[in-house]
Amino acid sequence: MDHFKIESIQTDNILPPKFKLRSDIGDLKELKASVIAKGLLQPLVVRPIKDKFEVVAGHRRFVVLKELGWKTIPVNIVDVDDKTALELSLTENIQRQSLDPIDEARAFKLYILEKEYGAASELAERISKSPSFITARTRLLGLPEELLTRVKTRRLGVSHAEEIARLMSKEKGEKQVEQAKELAEQVEKTGLRVEHVAKAVTAIKQGLPVSHAVEFATSFPEFTNYPKKSPERYNVIEVSRERILLTLQQALNKIDDALRYLSDTEAQVWIKRVRYPLHELIGEAQKVQKEQSK
Questions:
Q1: Is 137 in contact with 144 (CB distance < 8 Å)?
Q2: Domain ranges for the chain
Q3: What is the pLDDT of residues 210-257, one digit of tens each?
Q4: CATH of domain 1-98
């Protein structure tokens, strides 16, 4: 890529970018006020296209300068192909954190799938992000439109949305869409943490209804072996047994934590009269569960 010195060119000779990464140019009032007060702090990046120049980076600045009536604009001219132009535009916007997550996801999809410029690993290297970041972002596009709107309006956090998106397959089945919407509602109403959403998604994929999966994730955050899905339908009896056993185990853990604050004599009483019988009960529950699961 060849770089040239910064120079001023006629505004009428500058074209909008080929790759418009934003679905909405956004509110330009603050940027316009800054340009009026301080001038243009950073030149546009443009590339030669026939007898004109095309914006590579700085689309919003270009729009503001045109609205303000600038006749010439300082630019940095770079001679690059489409692939590099898209990489430069993405890099600048990500560094400035000026794209919303959905626009980022669509730009990544454009690069990887539509233009086939390279794999997620190559794009990640170009924009100084991890491949997992690229994958998680593009997965968002599998969500129903209603949830994409919530992410754009910040009603649903992007990290929460990335976890919920793991529920979706390429086919976007009706059941998956409803599960995603229901889990998003739970996030909005109860303020579920991202790690709880991740565990709930795993449980849902293994066959639990959304409400039960959320209960497991929040009540037993250390529990990862969620009851498996029945070959024919959700097995209520199996999950009920699992919940009972987990409740007993949680009670035993809390007793052990509390025993630290008792005197030796008091602790011995609790161990003999409460903890030991509870431990025995858990053993019996595990035995019954194992027998009835055969």
A1: no
A2: 1-98, 239-294
A3: 988 888 888 766 655 555 554 444 566 776 777 787 778 778 878 887
A4: 3.90.1530.10
